[in-house]
Fold this protein.
Amino acid sequence: MNNSIAELRDALRQASSIAALTGAGISAESGVPTFRGPNGLWRNYSPEKLATPQAFAENPRLVWEWYDWRRGIIRKAQPNAGHVAIAELERRKSGAADPPDGLPDHSGFTLITQNVDGLHDRAGSQNILKLHGDLWIVQCTGCGATELNEEVPLQGDLPPRCRCGAWLRPAVVWFGEPLPAEVWGRAVEASGRAKVFLVIGTSAAVYPAAGLAEVARRAGSRLAIVNPEPTPLDQVADWVLRGPSGELLPRLL
């Protein structure tokens, strides 16, 4: 285990391919409440009770209001220096080019995120694999069509309805639902190709996302952890940088 920023910086500079996995911690530095943190309760409901298909079926208005509340908080947040540093690293390594739809990405940098808040997009990241979906997209429960949430009228009955008449829901992965297969496949491929795999702002304890670090290690990648708190991966990591990503990641540039 190594805590040398200079050595990790050199490894990133030399690596032909880098993958980064980010979690709630990087967004917490922008003021976005963590999902399971002490501020996670809303109207005495825990997120684990609201972010489920069953909750939406039983009380769709309540679930929609909760997501509107979350969007209101996130709308006021700004990407922090950690988000910006990741976008700059992508620009340097790969030119920030999106792969064609349906094809695996072979650029030099892939960002894999468990976050749904869109702060990586706003910071300038382009090649993003969103394992848990996107809070700013809604999806029809009937025909499956998707659209930007900003285009959805919030007046009248909640949740709003699609043109086909079915309810719209947030295009995020709820408890009990599988990760999107195509996105997950690309994440596994990018992890197995990476020469350096960064784990940023996540406890690395929630699977299957945490398993991507294991995929990378089995393929010979070097592993770097950037997190304020210890993680289960620290003992097998090549580098462990303890602290906020907004302070540490800019130093890697």
